[in-house]
Design brief:
The chain is built from 1 helix and 14 strands. The protein has 286 residues and is an alpha+beta fold. Strands 1, 2, 3, 4, 5, 6, 7, 8, 9, 10, 11, 12, 13 and 14 form a 14-stranded antiparallel beta sheet that branches. The radius of gyration is 25 Å and the shape is globular. 27% of the residues are buried.
Length: 286
């Protein structure tokens, strides 16, 4: 009887240890999933903020490039990127051009993004200059229902070492999302126009983008984003189609691979422990 009782006690202890170990493993698994979910939510928001900054710069550069091509080619040129619902007004002084790009109360871009309000551009009148500084600011501006304030400065080269137009932008914006969440985002990026310049057909325009930036959410958490492999932006798509970013918060860095060239909202995360997770980026996924 005593031997049987000892065996029974030993079995009970083993079961208890296994249950405790199982409980700990479950807690660790849950914590990993919670951490991953938290990171994904912030990555989606920061990625949308990055798109906002990119699209504003793209519109400003498209408007400027239209003026530049007209002036330097000495012939009429019309970009078809901006739809008819956009009103462009230019006031010329002795040295400066002030241009307003007005999307009214709502205007749908060819790639599906919904914009309203005004983008203001200011740049030197001399269109023959090889390098030009363009100041950009916003008025009552929304992007896919995100209310955006702030501005950017673009230093644009007509031809870089590769023979392509290139702009170096320093941007600082704040946004209020439809759910009331608030964030600020800044960036320094280089944007090379590698295909479609001067074609007059917006859908063949392609850009390679590199740089770094920060995204600060409403609780004060700061996320930094750095390009590890150039981001490929094709205007025919609402999303970045390829490229790799590193996103860091405190001492944790996550890799975000934006794809193989397919136009979709998918991204592949790689966590510090080597685990991977496919996610859908942005609120608008088609």
């Amino acid at each position: 009887m005593k031997k049987s009782l000892k065996n029974s006690n030993l079995t009970g202890w083993l079961l208890m240890v296994l249950l405790v170990m199982g409980s700990c493993n479950n807690e660790e698994s849950t914590n990993v999933e919670e951490d991953a979910t938290f990171e994904v939510a912030e990555l989606v928001a920061s990625d949308e903020a990055d798109l906002i900054s990119e699209e504003i710069a793209n519109i400003g550069e498209d408007v400027y490039a239209t003026e530049e091509i007209r002036a330097t080619s000495k012939s009429f040129f019309l970009s078809n990127f901006l739809p008819e619902c956009v009103t462009i007004t230019t006031v010329v002084s002795s040295e400066v051009k002030e241009t307003t790009v007005d999307f009214g109360e709502g205007c749908t871009m060819p790639n599906g993004n919904q914009l309203s309000g005004i983008i203001h551009l200011s740049y030197a009148k001399d269109m023959d200059a090889a390098t030009k500084t363009i100041s950009l600011s916003l008025e009552d501006f929304t992007f896919n229902e995100v209310a955006v304030t702030g501005g950017a400065t673009l230093v644009r080269q007509r031809s870089n070492d590769n023979g392509n137009p290139q702009s170096d932008a320093v941007a600082s914006y704040s946004g209020v999302w439809p759910d009331g969440s608030v964030a600020s985002f800044t960036g320094n990026r280089t944007r090379e126009w590698v295909e479609g310049y001067g074609s007059g057909f917006w859908a063949d325009n392609v850009f390679l983008i590199s740089g770094e930036g920060t995204y600060t959410n409403k609780t004060g958490d700061v996320y930094t984003r750095e390009t590890m492999s150039s981001l490929r932006r094709e205007l025919s798509c609402r999303f970045i189609v390829s490229g790799v970013l590193e996103v860091s918060k405190n001492d944790t860095t996550i890799s975000l691979d934006l794809g193989d060239g397919t136009c979709d909202a998918k991204g592949m995360l790689t966590f510090p422990n080597g685990e991977t997770k496919e996610i859908l980026l942005r609120r608008f996924n088609n």
